[in-house]
Amino acid sequence: MMRAILTDPLDRIADALERMSPAPMGTPDFDSADAFLWQTAPDRLDPVSKINRVDLDLLVGIDRSRDTLMANTVQFANGLPANNALLWGARGMGKSSLVKAAHGAVVQSGKSLKLVELQREDLPSVGRLLDHLRDAPHRFVLFCDDLSFSHDDQHYKSLKAVLDGGIAGRPDNVILYATSNRRHLMPRDMIENERSTAITPGEAVEEKVSLSDRFGLWLGFHPCDQDQYLAMIDGYCRAHGVSVDADELRAEAIEWQATRGSRSGRVAWQFFVDLAGRHGVTL
User: Of 189, 183, 176, 177, nearest to 90 (Cα)?
Assistant: First the structure.
């Protein structure tokens, strides 16, 4: 009786300790999917059975960035040297879509390439993630979407080691693609504040902007004009078999972007989703 009384609390304590410090992650089955989500507490790589992406041909108005990133990705998939890439600029212009579309195009060509998405909040765990990827018999694109840092955010220091630092360095089979609305990943007022208040302003600013300097490729995305906006919608209509009178389509598309107050690839897709729904076309 006394043993049972003592055993129950000890079991509960042991269970609590295991939850606080879970067992190390086993070797992931990288053959189970082409894409994975990095999760922490406990560490694991969750396979993604279907990736949310569009075809590369449907990305209009970003030809130079598309061709540059595609060439870099093909080089990497072929085992050749390639650069980390920062896709920065206007919101809704296809930065994230381009990363996923480039990965999809390489996989469809018959090459083995895995996409691993890492959330900004999980950057402190990136060292553990690289340990799992370093010896794997695959090549990985590490994808961090909507990357930015505030004035009191120290996560950027974790990312520096991934890009170009540390004794071990970045594994040869891993490359990093990140998207951001900011060229230097930090607000301009933050950089200007460092310059105006620091004892050695040059050094303070250099520490902040050196992160973006570690990306070998900077690909800028800028707001589209009306012709590009309409071309995006035309491409979606052809790809999904939506037939609409050209003048009617143009008038509705222009009215839609006027009510939104902006033009972008995201706005074009949102208009097309509404258009397809009204015409009874499933996507």
Answer: 183
CATH no., domain 30-221:
3.40.50.300
Residue whose tokens read 């507490």:
41
Question: Per DSSP, what are the bridge partners of residue 176?
Answer: 142
C-alpha–C-alpha distance, residues 252 and 119, integer Å: 37
Kindly report the backbone phi and psi dihedral angles of residue 178, in degrees, each rounded to the nearest multiple of 5, phi listed first: -130, 150
Find all residues with CB under 8 Å of 210, minimum gap 6, and list them.
160
Helices 265-278 and 246-260 pack at an angle, to 10 degrees, of: 130
d(CA 94, CA 267): 11
Q: What span, in angstroms and rounded, lies between the C-alpha atoms of 84 and 54?
A: 22
Quick one: tokens of 131?
């340990």
- Please state, in angstroms and rounded to a whole number, the distance separating the CA atoms of residues 212 and 85: 10
Residue 269 CA to residue 232 CA, distance in Å, equals 8
Cross-strand bridge partners of residue 76: none
Residue 4, token pair as written in the block: 């049972």
| pLDDT score at 161 | 65
List Cβ neighbours of 179 (8 Å cut-off, separation of 6 or more): 86, 87, 88, 95, 96, 99, 144, 145, 146, 147
Per residue in 193-248, pLDDT (tens digit) is 555 555 555 555 565 566 777 889 999 999 999 999 999 999 999 999 999 999 99
pLDDT at residue 283 in the model: 84
| 8 Å CB contact between 78 and 109 | no
- Is the preceding omega at residue 42 within 30 degrees of 0, hence cis? yes
Q: Is 139 exposed, middle or buried (0-12, 13-18, 19+ CB in 10 A)?
A: buried
Q: For the segment 34-76, what is each residue's pLDDT rounded down to a tens digit?
A: 999 999 988 999 999 899 999 999 998 899 999 999 999 999 9
